[in-house]
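I hope you will forgive my troubling you with a question about protein structure. Here, with my thanks, is the record as I have it:
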Amino acid sequence: MHLNRRDFLAGATALTLSDALRAQTLAAAVNCPVEWAFTSTRQYENPFVDVDLDVVVRDPQGAEFRVPAFWAGSQMWRVRYAPS
C-alpha cells in the first residue's frame, strides 16, 4: 500500500486538516538550514517506500518550493531546508 501525503497524518484529508497543520509561519536565516520533524500516528510495514511526504515552503515573495521529507526511523520523518 502506497500512501499519499494527505493520508500520512492519521488518515486525514486536506479538507479535514486543521489550519495549524496545513500552514505554519516560521522564520529562518538565509543560507542556514532549518529542520522540521513529523511523527506519524501509524506504523508502516515499509515506511521508506510506503510513504511520500513533501513540505511546501513559501518564501516572503510568494515563491513555493516542494521539499521532500526523509524517513528518520521509527515513525519519524524529517525535512531540512535552507532558504536562499
Notes: The longest helix spans residues 5-8.
